[in-house]
């Protein structure tokens, strides 16, 4: 994979005449230094083939660090992913970034046990494999048989649904694709749009899955990955199910390093702790005003942040369909989960405790991030509301340190989905995060940003050149493996 990713991308070195007004330098301003903004900067630099003195890229970031929803938290000396944590092996842009930037991948441990809690008991529990190879193997077998006993061929139907959609998604890496100015057209081009128009539960029932696997396993996964139940769209649901298989990975030392590396590689200038307040279009250029008090004139502006909770003033104003962000509360605890809470006397608690969508359970999941000794672990708890000290004192028998985060995490999904335009003003104001109504992940932000970079360069170029990612070979190989 990585060797292929490093293959020369000759076709991309096409030089284009950027149709800017007077000066020879074209200025592109990007709002946001998350994976979307960083990818946009990277692809603009790569596809244009132009150095900074011809194509100036500036990235605005209101935080004091880059990465956005890729961020770390420090819990008594160890650092953990606080936001986006896992990637899929077929996330070809991010796989490529890691190779390009010389970062290291780390894979998740394979022997995690899980339990599904209904508020009174564990409805499903996998066994602990112990430490020796042979017991691990037997436990794996019993778990697989147990799961097979409970869900039967539904497990295969679930996997086949996911791989069908993944196969279509891989066409986003095809060579020679035209850039899209509408998310709907972009999704239709790979036959995924329909899945944004119906709920996941409807799609899975159509595939013949039983109500039992949907309300148990599938709901558990969508709750963990999107904080929401199976009423999210089929596409967001399939993406969420992708984040539950084997071979998931993360960047060693933190996923935010992808954004950091891409911004540096693209030679963009970066303004940290600088919030964009307004974008005013006049005389064919944009005047961007930010909290630093300095105005910047840009030929094009790329918004690579979700505008739902932002207060950027656009003039003339732009029209966006209403969308609210789902808030996910992440609580990190160093200590020990109480066995009493789960009514267990001596059995070991699962590494991942997930919950069903039933009223009265205040949390979505608890997972062990690291074990220090028998009474000292690092945990990550997801919930839909802030967890009180009173509740945490019931859930944990020991609590040495608690850190609470509240993320405007991803859209509140609501099929049928509507999408904001990719070009907000018919001119050169672009919006990467209109794609988030399809799904919100690091990879999909990169896919959306790559499309915006191609769209911008194609629309600015005088010869209508179309730009490509060069990942086609990887995608082909990827779909053969499915
Ligand atoms: C708890 C949690 C878990 C997740 N888990 C996963 C996962 O396991 N795998 C996965 O792939 N995805 C996951 N996601 C989703 C993933 O984090 C996002 O889809 C992705 O990181 C979005 O990247 P982005 O660049 O589009 O937006 P962001 O990362 O939000 O970047 C936008 C940036 O713009 C900045 N900004 C906003 N407004 C302004 C302004 N006016 N001026 C200047 N700067 C501004 C923000 O500070 C931010 O840094 C998770 C998200 C959360 C919250
Ligand atoms: C990026 O910056 C480095 C160091 O300033 C310079 O050597 C390199 O040529 C620049 N590359 C581009 C594409 O601008
Ligand atoms: C699933 O979530 C939706 C939207 O929040 C809600 O209306 C619905 O009642 C939930 N379904 C179940 C089974 O709880
Ligand atoms: C910056 O731009 C804003 C909005 O266009 C304008 O009101 C303001 O006068 C400008 N400031 C400077 C210093 O040019
Ligand atoms: C486990 O670690 C904690 C704190 O790091 C310490 O207080 C406790 O004594 C240790 N327990 C055992 C059994 O080693």
From TrEMBL:
Domain Prenylcysteine lyase, chain residue ranges per copy? 138-462
Which residues belong to the signal peptide in this entry?
Answer: 1-23
Q: Name one GO biological process term.
A: prenylated protein catabolic process
The protein's matches in InterPro entries, at most eight in alphabetical order, are given as:
FAD/NAD-bd_sf, Prenylcys_lyase, Prenylcysteine_Oxase1
- Taken from the record, one Pfam family name reads Prenylcys_lyase
Say which domain of life the source belongs to.
Eukaryota
Keyword Repeat set for record: no
Which cofactor(s) does the record list?
Answer: FAD
* Keywords attached to this entry: FAD, Flavoprotein, Glycoprotein, Oxidoreductase, Signal
Quote one Gene Ontology molecular function term: prenylcysteine oxidase activity
Family classification: Belongs to the prenylcysteine oxidase family.
Identification of the protein by name: Prenylcysteine lyase domain-containing protein
């Amino acid at each position: 994979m990585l060797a292929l990713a490093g293959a020369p991308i000759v076709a991309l070195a096409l030089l284009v005449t950027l149709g800017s007004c007077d000066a020879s330098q074209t200025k592109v301003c990007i709002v946001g230094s998350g994976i979307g903004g960083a990818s946009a900067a990277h692809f603009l630099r790569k596809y244009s083939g132009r150095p900074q003195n011809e194509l100036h890229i500036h990235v605005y970031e209101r935080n004091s660090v880059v990465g956005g929803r890729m961020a770390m938290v420090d819990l008594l000396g160890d650092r953990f992913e606080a936001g986006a944590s896992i990637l899929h092996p077929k996330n070809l842009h991010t796989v490529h970034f890691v190779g390009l930037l010389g970062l290291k991948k780390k894979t998740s441990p394979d022997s995690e046990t899980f339990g599904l809690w209904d508020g009174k008991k564990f409805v499903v529990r996998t066994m602990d494999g112990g430490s020796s190879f042979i017991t691990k193997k037997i436990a794996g077998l019993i778990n697989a048989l147990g799961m097979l006993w409970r869900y039967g061929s539904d497990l295969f139907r679930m996997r086949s649904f996911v791989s069908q959609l993944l196969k279509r998604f891989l066409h986003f890496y095809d060579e020679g694709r035209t850039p899209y100015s509408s998310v709907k057209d972009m999704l239709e081009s790979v036959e995924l749009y329909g899945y944004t128009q119906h709920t996941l539960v409807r799609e899975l029932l159509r595939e013949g899955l039983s109500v039992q696997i949907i309300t148990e396993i599938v709901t558990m996964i969508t709750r963990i990955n999107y904080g929401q139940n199976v009423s999210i769209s089929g596409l967001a649901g399939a993406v969420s199910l992708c984040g539950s298989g084997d071979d998931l990975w993360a960047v060693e030392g933190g996923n935010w390093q992808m954004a950091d590396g891409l911004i540096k590689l693209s030679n963009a200038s970066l303004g940290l702790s600088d919030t964009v307040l307004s974008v005013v279009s006049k005389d064919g250029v944009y005047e961007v005003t930010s909290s630093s008090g300095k105005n910047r004139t840009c030929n094009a502006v790329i918004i690579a942040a979700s505008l739902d909770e932002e207060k950027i003033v656009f003039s003339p104003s732009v029209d966006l369909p209403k969308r609210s962000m789902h808030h996910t509360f992440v609580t990190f605890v160093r200590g020990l989960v109480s066995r009493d809470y789960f009514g267990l006397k001596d059995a070991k608690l699962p590494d991942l405790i997930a919950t069903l969508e039933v009223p009265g359970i205040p949390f979505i999941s608890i997972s062990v991030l690291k074990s220090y000794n028998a009474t000292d672990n690092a945990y990550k708890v997801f919930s839909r509301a802030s967890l009180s000290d009173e509740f945490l004192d019931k859930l944990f028998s020991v609590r040495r340190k608690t850190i609470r985060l509240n993320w405007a995490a991803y859209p509140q999904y609501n099929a049928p989905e509507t999408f904001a335009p990719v070009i907000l003003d018919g001119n050169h104001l672009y919006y990467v995060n209109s794609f988030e109504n399809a799904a919100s992940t690091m990879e999909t932000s990169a896919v959306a940003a790559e499309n915006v970079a191609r769209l911008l360069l194609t629309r600015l170029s005088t010869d209508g050149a179309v730009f490509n990612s060069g990942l086609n070979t990887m995608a082909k190989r990827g779909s053969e493996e499915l």
